[in-house]
């Protein structure tokens, strides 16, 4: 197969980078280009039809199954509030939950660098077991490979998961509609800042801890209200900015945020100001964004706030018919600014 580089449109990160760079794994525009212009053409008719999201929903024998896979390369492997072990379990559980599914079973494959301490690997395995028990899922299959010393970086984990989607639930990016309220389940940016502070030895006056957590229980509480939840997304790599831009483009709608309503904790804001980061592009591992019809918003918010992982839930914006495919924020001064899709990744190796 010959890739048609000349047919790509700007911005085209791949055209000028003939080799993989860190930004291709950042969940932003470079990742999207890689999927759209390399993987999908390469897969051809064997690729996934329809919308691309956090997971695929497949009907098998009359049962709707959610299926997801994810890789974890976070550095360092242990950070305030979590580790690569619980991150791998919770991340996959959350990808399934964003379709409304009840997660059931996970697989786990390990790529280990020669020389990795068995004590560290044991801590990771114990963290995965504890996270799986807390989420009510089982680790049922897996694989292990070892690479030469210097060919890897400690431990990489790849997980896959399956779950069951309840009858009548249809949650996907393309269902976002003008008039939807946009909700967030809590404070933003904690995971990315926690990993960065540990990696670089930075302090910001107080310890920032990762928000890694399983969100399927929160999703179940939202669905139990009877509201027609249109879209769910956990804003991990690329943060809220990437998640909302992907949804806006998939549904052909505009998104308007109210800047003063964005829940960015003071310590996260201080860290981002110090380092020149945009908190809307910083990864989260225990938060979700929801699009629900405005008449159901308060009911859903009440259910979210009653759950341990949704106590800080609030409305942050509205889905509009204007400027389709774009995300804008209304500032405190009454103006607007465009929230663009991240090109690469502010913080590589964050999950």
TrEMBL record:
Residues 178-323 form the PurM-like C-terminal domain. Residues 54-165 form the PurM-like N-terminal domain. One of its GO terms (biological process) is protein maturation. It holds the Pfam family AIRS_C. Belongs to the HypE family. This is Hydrogenase expression/formation protein HypE. It comes from Actinoplanes aureus.
């Amino acid at each position: 197969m010959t890739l048609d580089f000349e047919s790509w449109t700007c911005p085209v990160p791949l055209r000028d980078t003939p080799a993989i760079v860190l930004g291709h794994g950042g969940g932003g525009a470079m990742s999207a280009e890689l999927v759209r212009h390399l993987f999908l053409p390469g897969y051809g008719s064997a690729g996934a039809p329809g919308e691309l999201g956090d997971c695929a929903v497949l009907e098998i024998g009359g049962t709707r199954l959610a299926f997801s896979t994810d890789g974890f390369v976070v550095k360092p492997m242990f950070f305030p509030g979590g580790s690569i072990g619980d991150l791998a379990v919770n991340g996959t559980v959350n990808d399934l939950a964003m379709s409304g599914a009840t997660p059931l079973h996970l697989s786990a494959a390990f790529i280990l660098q020669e020389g990795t301490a068995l004590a560290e690997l044991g801590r990771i395995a114990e963290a995965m077991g504890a996270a799986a028990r807390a989420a009510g899922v089982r680790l049922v299959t897996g694989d292990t490979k070892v690479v030469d010393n210097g060919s890897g970086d400690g431990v990489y984990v790849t997980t896959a998961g399956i779950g069951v989607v309840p009858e009548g639930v249809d949650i996907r990016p393309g269902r976002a509609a003008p008039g939807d309220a946009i909700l967030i389940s809590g404070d933003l940016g904690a995971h990315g800042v926690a990993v960065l502070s540990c990696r670089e030895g930075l302090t910001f006056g107080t310890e920032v801890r990762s928000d890694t957590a399983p969100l399927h229980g929160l999703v179940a509480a939202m669905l139990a209200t009877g509201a027609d939840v249109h879209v769910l997304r956990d804003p991990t790599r690329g943060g809220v900015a990437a998640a909302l831009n992907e949804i806006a483009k998939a549904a052909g709608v505009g998104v308007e945020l109210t800047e003063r309503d964005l829940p960015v904790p003071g310590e996260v804001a201080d860290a981002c100001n110090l380092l020149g980061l945009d908190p809307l592009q910083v990864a989260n591992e225990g938060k979700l964004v929801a699009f629900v019809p405005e008449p159901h918003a308060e009911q859903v918010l009440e259910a979210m706030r009653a759950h341990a992982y949704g106590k800080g839930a609030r409305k942050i914006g509205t889905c509009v018919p204007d400027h389709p495919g774009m995300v804008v924020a209304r500032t405190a001064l009454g103006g607007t600014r465009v929230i663009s899709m991240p090109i690469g990744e502010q913080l590589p190796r964050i999950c």
